[in-house]
Amino acid sequence: MTIKPLIILPDPLLRQVSKPVETVNDEVKKLADDMLETMYDAPGIGLAAIQVGVPRRMLVLDVAKDGEEKAPRVFINPEIVASSNDRSVYEEGCLSIPDYYAEVERPASVTVRHLDREGREQIIEADGLLATCLQHEIDHLNGVLFIDHISKLKREMVIRKFTKAARLRGAKAI
Fold this sequence. Notes:
The protein has a single domain, classed as Peptide Deformylase. 28% of the residues lie in helices and 29% in strands. It has helices at residues 26-41, 128-141, 152-169; strands at residues 46-48, 58-61, 73-83, 87-94, 97-107, 109-115, 121-127. The mean pLDDT is 95.
């Protein structure tokens, strides 16, 4: 397995809509393994393929608590097919927006259809942290960042901060 470099705000790739995975093959499985390795190394609880520079509709996550056994999951071509009217608020962060956290309100539960690591169709009903994480990562696949769910003023401050840091590094900006 390989730890891949993370794409960081304001890289324009983060705003790209990812394309579906056509076939679940060995290359896709290797990408899933590399993404899990990268996510654990970061450390994080979720990672979309676009965050490692691959614009494909694929994400990995593991919401096991500290001290619990790892529970890695792979979601290929995930799609939210239902969401609750009930809302919940979690403090979210993002590996592509390091060291920034904000409270985000989202549906409290979602139903997601996806393919698993073996290419079998699955449907999962999720609530709590799992629901939030799935929504956050599926947003990435649609070019949406968690900062798009906060006030315009806060979002613009974050983007300015990361754009300035990118300029200092000589990176490309949105």
